[in-house]
Amino acid sequence: MCGIFGAICQGAVSNTLKALKLLEYRGYDSAGFAANRGDVIEICKTEGRIAALERLAQGVAETDVAIGHTRWATHGAVCAQNAHPFLSPDGRFAIVHNGIIENYLDLKKYLGKKVFSSQTDSETVAYLLEKEYRGDVLQAVLRVAQMLQGSFAIAITAVNERKLYAIKNKSPLVVGFGEGAYLCSDIRCISRWANSVAVTPDGTVAEISPDGARFFRFDGSPVAVNFFTPEQGENVAETSGDFMLKEIYEIPRKLVLAKNGYFDSGGLNLPERRAGSFRKIYFIGCGTAYNSGLQVSAVARQWFGIDVTPVIASEFVYGNYPVDGHTLAFFISQSGETADTVRAVERVRAAGGYAYAVTNTASSSLTFACDRTVNICAGGEYAVASTKAYNCQLVTLTLLMLDVALGRGAISRQSYRYFLREMDSLPQAVMRALKSDDEITRLAEKIKDVSALFYIGRIADYPTACEGSLKLKEISYIHSEAYPAGELKHGALALMDSDVAVVAISTFDALSDKTASSVNEIAARGAMVITVSDRVFENSLPLIIPKVHPALAGIASVVPLQLLAYRTAKSLGRDVDKPRNLAKSVTVE
Question: Does CATH place domain 430-576 in 3.40.50.10490?
Fold first, then answer.
């Protein structure tokens, strides 16, 4: 969840602060850096965002070795004492850490009656380094690595060392070289400084100097690691508004890129020996990524008779879901670093299934873990609440299912071409939906003070309801739930009164009468109803959307819900790009 960065270069402190601003999406409770001045390490850290750290750092002199951290709290309250970096008691070592040290209580017992300055699990690593140091920093790092249990990416700097050290296991860490040597949690971030990078394998210690890097297993045996040229990260331009709104308005253009990128990468491209052998398909992801799998599975079930199942990644890892050599699993993650999703890949591959990554980040942990990868081509997404990535996931996943259907003879070549033509109408439909922004702003004013919102829909409209509800709760902090519309009478109707509002999504003509009945039942209890549809329903506030192919409707109908969440949050004065308690990339289970 946290972001870490390390640099050996001219202006290491300035570059570390710049990097932490790019990494702030990973956590923004507190931040800090360590400036290595040779015989002493200076620590600068504070509660709050990177802007607060920049103000505090104005009196800090430059160095050519530094490590930095932006925090999403797991152990200990949000305060300066729990912010990273942490110094060893003798001042020899400073560390920053992303992940969780699961056995830190046992390690504290091993360390004896030490007085710790924080409530974190991370500080134990600095204390261990001091205890295990016997004149050789690398050997101390290796000994400490063997003691740790959990998921961790740890960056270490030591006095009188123009080097960086890292310990990596099940948390993202990239090493790179350009005009200096660097390490980082995010390949897109490090690519701004490095033109040659390597993804550090799990169970590895890295020793990094301006002359190169050496990698070792925890037992000290050397590991060969391949370097490659990364895709250059997009420039994060200053904007007069919020990234979330900018990213919503990018959706029409990104839909085109997602479709073209899919075919440019070779499409489905399964091994011939396996292409027709799958009997079960999983869509596995978390949060918004799970909702995209939920959406596409509802569409896919209408095309062919394979068992198609969407599963939340954290449930899949520990649930007894059947997997064998006839299983095809699509792993969906915007960042490609979602810990639960990567763990789920390991389970599928161990059981002989085929793992297919659908991600927005090339060279991420997910892409290395899976058998095949397709990029959704949404471009950098900097608001924590995902918007354009969801729409691009839907395009990519729909194309994947369309190819599966064609390959299995479930649809004809003519139907396939027709469907692609219908997909080409989506950008225009979304642009028309965006023109409702003024009306959406007025609706946001009506709902901002309700005690709760409910989103309802049937079949493929239900996943859209889930995503709309998720967006609202993420950034407005209003309690929100999604329900299959037919489930209202089985409990949720008891909550309907004048203090709640309901958003009903209806894009299927055959089910519109069912939606009308649900709207009337809700309105009769005094609740406000907003309908998102290409038709008008009585007893509701209509939000009209363009009509598109039913199998594609969720790609367009979710856009007004993204805007509604944004406008509601803005009217309540929320920080829409960095909502409380959340981070963009969830790298711990």
Answer: yes
